[in-house]
From TrEMBL:
<keyword id="KW-0677">Repeat</keyword>
<dbReference type="Pfam" id="PF03160">
    <property type="entry name" value="Calx-beta"/>
</dbReference>
<keyword id="KW-0813">Transport</keyword>
<protein>
    <submittedName>
        <fullName>Partial</fullName>
    </submittedName>
</protein>
<dbReference type="InterPro" id="IPR038081">
    <property type="entry name" value="CalX-like_sf"/>
</dbReference>
<keyword id="KW-0106">Calcium</keyword>
<dbReference type="GO" id="GO:0030001">
    <property type="term" value="P:metal ion transport"/>
</dbReference>
<keyword id="KW-0406">Ion transport</keyword>
<dbReference type="GO" id="GO:0016020">
    <property type="term" value="C:membrane"/>
</dbReference>
<keyword id="KW-0732">Signal</keyword>
<dbReference type="InterPro" id="IPR003644">
    <property type="entry name" value="Calx_beta"/>
</dbReference>
<dbReference type="GO" id="GO:0007154">
    <property type="term" value="P:cell communication"/>
</dbReference>
<dbReference type="InterPro" id="IPR051171">
    <property type="entry name" value="CaCA"/>
</dbReference>
Length: 1242
């Protein structure tokens, strides 16, 4: 808005008028709009007289006292002499008091000119000192240090004073604005646009608007420096946004900028101070420092950083899970697992541990402690449906840390909180906290655990723990191999009570039972648990530690068993194997222990005594170990107790035996029988060498009695006896005779077997008595007289002084019968009490030398698949006197096991069978599957060595199934330009995939509607072979492709047949219909039309209507029917057609004549017409109908009935009659002339 105002002689009125006007227009002031009304009521406050040395300049410049604006030195005297004037006068006053208000002129005026002009205005009375109030800026003005102007603009004080070039008001203003923009970080142009005002010439109230915007931009600029928003910056400065935005520029300088600088310093400290330095400043050792959280070092007042959690959230965009970790997780939880240099800054360490933005924590432990469950689930593929998992499982899966004694410190859990934290899932924790699953997945794992602890305090967690308690109870029982029945036996508590125990209570019972069962002294030591861990803590272990507890139990039990096996029971140690209340054995050892040397260690127990790998034993499930303990370890311990504490005669007495009755048995055999200990185990237990073990494996008790221990040694324990045998010399306790061997083998065809009787020792070599023994035979399976020559008692005599051995020969009888090896006994006895028979019995085995063979008898080696049961005969060739079992096996050559069932898998030939033929039954599977002929081989086998020949029979199964095929469609239509006609043929009714290829013969047959040679021009395929391959299944389709020739001739639709036949493949059956019709639809245009759209004919004449091919070329005959339709007057009686249809042969173009005869009917009528149209079922295009017009050739004769007529004088009219001759179908109008005759009177 531009207002032109002439200076009035009455300024007050003018000003009053303008006051009302401009008050309304204040906020939209333009450079041409002058506001006076704001100056009226301001109080007068004199400004001090400034010396010529300038330090600050008032902003805005327009209302700055002239005295404060740098000026040339030459004007100092004038200003000082008029100090009151220049202390109050402003550039605004210079403009306002001027007669002509030229703002641009003022702005472009030098400061010196403004000073001179103000004095001139005063002298002219246009400016009164006591009326000057613009300078009195109470709130919003700013004293801007001139040093800042110099810094920003590069102008010196002399430049600002106007040396060497004068400085205009606008130049000074621009310098000030440039400086303000730099100091307060704003863009004046943007503020001017937003306020729709210029900043070059302002009063305080207007400047207040600018100052408020400058404050906003200054605050936002500092917020941008930190990467935060203005509200967040206010929080960082411990104030609010309204307070910041209410600041003046002076407040910004004195408060905001100072506080912001302090904030930057604190931020810089956090980002540069090392963790080592933070420890030192807080006067903490490294260990003490690691026990603090990151928030401690960021927020401690002594650290000068003094950030709270919200500060860190704002400055570094850390999210809720990260902030929780910063506030609650001690650094030790991270530093024990993550590679972190304490020489890094607090921020660098924080980024490594908590991540920031897109930067992730450097190790998995840090990640899972500082990121939400959603993020953890996304990062670790092994974690799915994380809300259904428990806290410890999540931690283990993410970090691969599986030790509870490590993770409890990391997660800040008490050592006895393991199972309690493990039982509830994350979703259970959410429910206990009245939150949903989506919320809990936004929390970190430490937050979930904290919520879990809080819910336990409030009591909301209990019911949710019960949900998973049964699962963990069952897992507990399974892990330790206990059943409720066993626990009932141990505790005498009812099932109802046991099944309602907490997991911890049940675990305590089981651990106590295991400690008792395996006599374990300190289980916690084996678990490597830190500190003092009692049984209660062990019972609270999470389930993933149960397996380690099982290993510890096994290790403790195994070590206890090895210790027991090392004890010397004869030296005072005592071992007892007793049963617990649940019936399970336990090993008890008295405190007074004396050990063998070397001792049995766990490795010896595992590898030597049990033949196991020690590591494998420790890896066993507890039930498996307990089985090993009961079946293997306990018997060894019990054997040790027996061998070391029980006398031999007591052991024999339990079986009603005395020592002499076991003389023929070896020492090792008897030891093993009564102690269960093998020679190998004796070596492991007592360190005996292999030579001694071989010795006791060979020496009999008789030998011991005769040559080693002559006294009543049977009163000693077996261990004592064996120890004595170690060093006992060879002596003669008796005269000893023995068979040279306890067994002999002889071939049936050898004829004889020679038995040796040895004189082993003589009690007193000086005695010159003969020594005699009696030798006899006894049948076992061999028959005396049939298989060997039975001998009566035969006396074998050793003459006095004779040594060595005597021989006895027995005849062996040979036969031709295949039989088992047969045995008989040779026995020697003596009636002399001083003679001991060591080996008194020898078993003679007659080895059979006869053989038989097996062969097949098969009616036919080729059988039909639908035969069903097929029977073979297996023939034994030769005589037998034993059962011979023969296994029958099928070797699939091309068959598989689904093609048959072998009903006879074994046969046995017995001596009592009359027939030596056995039937073998094979059931052929009629499987409805199309397959080739398949072969299998039947092979007999036997372990009987007397069967020396077997044969294999090969059977071929001839398939009787056919592949049924059919056309996919029964009819097909293809356009002539299709290129290739594709017809589908598919398999149907298959019981399974084809097992062989089958071929279908395809024959294309022409329909004899055209000459065959012409039809063949349309096709390029007459027959083919279609193959379905092995593996094809029901509805597998093979396509018949028939190329179709596209020509340019119009033809009627052509048809041909496609016939499917099995051809030469007897495995194919074609389903009806075997033949389908294929129609080729012509695509070539052609048209037959009348040569004219209308024809004329007179009644009785013939109209020749011409037809011709008006478009295209005919490639086949086309028949066109001619059809007439009545016109408006013509009917069927008015015309006849002589040719009802017209045929165009292939290649013809016409014209062809259609004759229509118009009937001559003797009836007078109008000209008539009718229409003629064409029709054809050939598909050809037909032209429009034609009209035929019939011209009538008949007349009507009209005449007067009377030639003369009379009329009476005076009548007005005379009547004349007419008559018409001839039939007429239309009205006939006759024109007549009226003649009026006027007669004149005579």
């Amino acid at each position: 808005m531009v207002i032109t105002l002439l200076k009035s002689r009455n300024p007050p009125k003018t000003r009053q008028y303008l006051t009302h006007l401009f008050c309304l227009a204040d906020l939209t002031m333009t450079p041409n709009l002058v506001i006076w009304s704001f100056l009226v009521s301001l109080a007068f406050t004199p400004a001090p007289v400034f010396p010529a040395t300038f330090t600050t300049i008032r902003v805005p410049l327009s209302i700055a006292p002239i005295v404060s604006i740098p000026r040339p030195d030459s004007l100092d005297e004038e200003v000082i002499n008029n100090s009151e004037l220049y202390a109050r006068a402003t550039i605004y006053d210079n403009f306002n008091a001027s007669v002509i208000h030229d703002l641009d002129g003022v702005l472009n005026t030098s400061i010196s000119s403004v000073i001179s002009n103000i004095l001139l205005l005063k002298e002219r009375g246009l400016l009164q000192v006591d009326m000057l109030t613009a300078f009195n800026c109470t709130t919003w003005c700013l004293d801007l240090p001139i040093s800042e102007i110099a810094r920003v603009t590069g102008k010196t004080m002399e430049n600002l004073k106007g040396n060497p070039d004068p400085v205009t008001v606008l130049e000074m203003h621009d310098a000030i604005i440039e400086t303000l923009e730099d100091v307060y970080c704003f863009d004046m142009v943007l503020i001017e646009k937003s306020l729709n005002m210029f900043s070059k010439f302002l009063l305080e109230s207007q400047w207040a608007l600018f100052a408020a915007q400058i404050v906003i931009q200054a605050v936002q600029c500092r917020a941008n420096i930190l990467g935060v928003n203005a509200t967040e910056l206010a929080e960082l400065l411990r104030t609010d946004l309204a307070t910041l935005y209410g600041y003046t520029l002076d407040n910004l300088n004195k408060t905001f900028f100072q506080n912001f600088l302090q904030l930057q310093v604190r931020k810089n400290l956090f980002e540069t101070r090392t963790l080592d330095d933070a420890y030192a400043i807080a006067e903490l050792t490294e260990a003490q420092g690691e026990g603090k959280t990151m928030l401690f070092f960021a927020g401690a007042r002594t650290s000068s950083i003094n950030f709270n959690l919200r500060d860190l959230e704002i400055l570094y965009d850390w999210q809720k899970p990260q902030l929780f970790a910063i506030e609650n997780i001690p650094l030790s939880s991270y530093l024990s697992q993550c590679s972190v240099k304490t020489s890094n800054s607090l921020l660098a360490v924080s980024k490594l541990l908590f991540g920031q933005g897109a930067t992730e924590p450097t190790c998995n432990v840090a990640y899972v402690l500082s990121r939400s469950l959603n993020e953890v689930e996304a990062k670790f593929n092994a974690l799915t449906a994380v809300e259904t998992q428990n806290s410890l499982y999540i931690f283990m899966t993410a970090t691969s840390i599986s030790s509870w004694f490590v993770m409890d410190d990391i997660l800040q859990l008490v050592i006895n909180e393991g199972i309690w934290v493990e039982i509830p899932s994350a979703s259970h924790v959410a429910s206990a906290a009245s939150q949903n699953t989506s919320f809990i997945k936004t929390c970190s794992l430490p937050e979930v655990i904290a919520s879990l602890k809080n819910s336990n305090v409030t009591g909301t967690l209990g019911p949710l723990l019960e949900i998973n308690n049964p699962t963990f109870r069952n897992l507990l029982l399974t892990t330790y191999g206990y059943s409720y029945n066993e626990l009932i036996s141990l505790t005498r508590a009812p099932l109802s009570q046991l099944s309602n125990l907490s997991v911890v209570e049940l675990h305590a019972i089981i651990l106590g039972a295991l400690v008792d069962r395996y006599s374990i002294s300190n289980l916690s030591l084996l678990l490597d648990a830190p500190g003092v861990v009692d049984m209660h803590v062990l019972s609270t272990l999470p389930s993933f530690e149960w397996s380690r507890a099982v290993i510890a139990v096994i290790q403790a039990s195994f070590a206890h068993a090895a210790d027991a096996l090392s004890l010397n029971l004869a030296a005072g140690s005592r071992i007892v194997v007793t049963n617990q209340a649940d019936g399970n054995p336990t090993i008890l050892v008295n405190p007074s222990r004396v050990y063998f040397s070397p001792r049995v260690n766990t490795s010896t127990l595992a590898t030597c005594l049990l033949g196991r790998n020690e590591t494998d034993i420790y890896a066993m499930p507890l039930p498996e170990y307990h089985t090993l303990f009961i079946i293997n370890i306990i018997p060894i311990v019990e054997g040790k107790i027996i061998i070391e504490t029980t006398a031999l005669e007591d052991l024999l007495a339990e079986n009603n035996l005395v020592l002499r009755q076991i003389w023929n048995r070896t020492v090792a055999e008897v030891v093993s029988q009564y102690t269960g200990l093998t020679a190998q185990q004796l070596r492991c237990l007592y360190g005996w060498n292999q030579f001694f073990l071989d010795f006791i494996n060979e020496i009999t008790w008789g030998n011991v009695s005769a040559f080693r221990l002559c006294g009543a040694y049977e009163k000693l324990a077996l261990h004592r006896i064996l120890v004595q045998l170690l060093t006992a010399p060879t002596v003669n306790c008796f005269t000893t005779i023995s068979l040279s061997s306890s067994s002999y083998g002889v071939g049936e065809s050898d004829g004889i077997v020679t038995i040796f009787v040895q004189l082993v020792s003589v009690l007193d070599p000086k005695v010159e008595d003969n020594i005699q023994v009696s030798l006899s035979t006894s049948s076992i399976s061999a028959t005396g007289g049939t298989d060997f020559q039975q001998i009566p008692n035969t006396i074998v005599t050793f003459q006095a002084g004779e040594t060595g051995q005597k021989t006895v020969t027995i005849n062996i009888l040979d036969d031709k019968i295949a039989e088992n090896d047969e045995q008989f006994l040779v026995l020697i006895t003596s009636s002399d009490s001083d003679t001991i028979i060591l080996t008194s019995t020898a078993t003679i085995t007659i080895l059979d030398n006869d053989f038989v063979s097996l062969s097949w008898q098969v009616p036919d080696n080729s059988v039909a698949e639908n035969l069903g049961l097929f029977t073979f005969s297996l023939i034994l060739n030769g005589e037998i006197e034993k059962n011979i079992s023969v296994s029958i096996a099928v070797n699939d050559l091309t068959t598989n096991s689904t093609d048959y069932s072998l009903l006879t898998t074994a046969v046995t030939f017995t001596p009592c069978n009359v027939s030596s033929t056995k039937s073998v039954h094979l059931l052929i599977t009629n499987d409805q599957i199309v397959e080739p002929a398949e072969s299998l081989a039947l092979t007999p086998s036997t372990t009987d060595a007397s069967v020396n020949t077997t044969s294999t029979v090969i059977l071929t199964i001839q398939d009787d199934d056919k592949a049924q095929v059919e056309h996919v469609n029964t009819t097909y239509s293809f356009p002539e330009d299709i290129g290739t006609a594709v017809l589908g043929v598919r398999l149907v009714n298959l019981a399974g995939p084809l097992q062989t290829d089958v071929n279908v013969s395809v024959v294309v047959i022409a329909v004899e509607q055209e000459p065959k040679e012409q039809f063949n021009n349309e096709l390029t395929q007459a027959s083919s072979l279609l193959t379905f391959f092995a593996g094809d299944v029901n509805n597998s389709v093979r396509n018949i492709s028939i190329p179709i020739v596209d020509d340019s001739l119009f033809e009627v639709a052509k048809q041909f047949f496609v016939l499917l036949t099995p051809g030469f493949d007897d495995k194919v059956e074609v389903q009806q219909p075997t033949q389908v019709t294929v129609t080729i639809l012509d695509n070539d245009p052609a048209q037959i039309s009348f040569t004219s759209s209308s024809y004329n004919v007179t009644e009785g004449q013939t109209a020749a209507m011409m037809l011709e091919v008006t478009n295209g070329t005919l490639g086949s005959s086309v028949n066109v029917s001619v059809n007439t339709q009545d016109g408006s007057t013509a009917g069927k009686s008015d015309f006849t057609t002589t040719i009802p249809s017209v045929t165009f042969l292939a290649g013809e173009t016409g014209p062809k004549v259609v004759s229509v005869v118009a009937v001559d009917d003797e009836i007078v009528e109008h000209s008539e017409y009718f229409t003629v149209s064409l029709s054809s079922n050939s598909g050809i295009s037909l032209g429009p109908q034609a009209s035929v017009f019939i011209n009538d050739n008949d007349d009507v004769v009209v005449q007067f009935t009377n030639i003369l007529s009379s009329v009476t004088e005076g009548s007005r009219f005379a009547t004349v009659q007419l008559s018409a001759t001839g039939e007429r179908a239309i009205n006939v109008t006759v024109k007549y002339v009226q003649v009026t005759i006027l007669f004149e009177p005579l």
